[in-house]
Amino acid sequence: MTKKERVIAVIEGKEADGVPSGFSLHFPAYQAVGDAAVEAHLQFFEETDTDIIKVMNEHLVPCYGMIRTPKDYYEKIPVMNRKTDFIAEQIEMTKKILDRADKDSFTMGTLHGICASGIHPLEKMGEGYNLNEVRQMQLDFLRWDEKKMLDAMKKIADGMCQLAEEYIVNAGVDSVYYAGLGAESKWFTDEEFDRWIKPLDLQIMKAIKDAGGYCFLHMCKSGLNMERYDEDYSALADVVNWGVYEAPLSMEEGRKLFKGKVVMGGLPNRSGVFVDGDEAAVRQAVRDVVNGYGRKGLILGADCTLATEQDRSLVRAAALEARSL
Predict the structure, then answer these.
(1) Of 69, 118, 164, 305, which is most buried, counting CB atoms within 10 Å of its CB?
(2) Is the full-model pTM beyond 0.85?
């Protein structure tokens, strides 16, 4: 089987000749965009030899000026479409990468979900606007003026739908990795998540499916209320991935929660064998994951992105071992 055939076989519940794998990391700032990012991706793919090649996305919703109120947020966030600079630039970079990448691989574009995309314009306003501060600002604004905020977030969601379609129809990726955010219990209540985040998440995930791509749902961060990702999410996801060691939710528990869905994961991303192990330890860890979970419905991966400085020979060892099982 080719790498692409192997991944698709697992997604579609068919027999594969080995366990496929997919890992990714954020490249340094000087390799985040442009031609430098193209070369960095290609080098990573060659050095790690994973079945899935995932195009990272540092073309984020930009800052449109200082935002101090929900009214500012609504008025400064513009309507977005496929020609909007950050969308067009991400697609152009993706096409350049895929034009030179291994054609036998399963391809994937990264899309930041509505919660993350909604805070990016705030995060980029300047120094001092760190993640926790802008998450709190987003929450405060939604509680302050729900209508203006949701109207503005809908503009962002519509733009993300355009990005999803461009990824699949124009760039030709096989799948989109939807990086969901917002289910941490310390931010939104269950009711707020259902009212503010879930409908826009589902809108974008549906756009991925409608465009003909496979949808990989990543549930990011720690302290998650995984029950928020209910059957509505599951219906639109082909593959699910979360921080097994962060959520916390074991792979077995995830198998029960997301009935019939392929699980991607098994290894911690910033601890364990990828940090303090050698190739033999990595191979043994992979065997332990596969023997414990089973080959069916499994794509080997990590909780989230690996460290930028990750030893790539260890990633390659994991990919080769999984493929042999």
Answers:
(1) 118
(2) yes
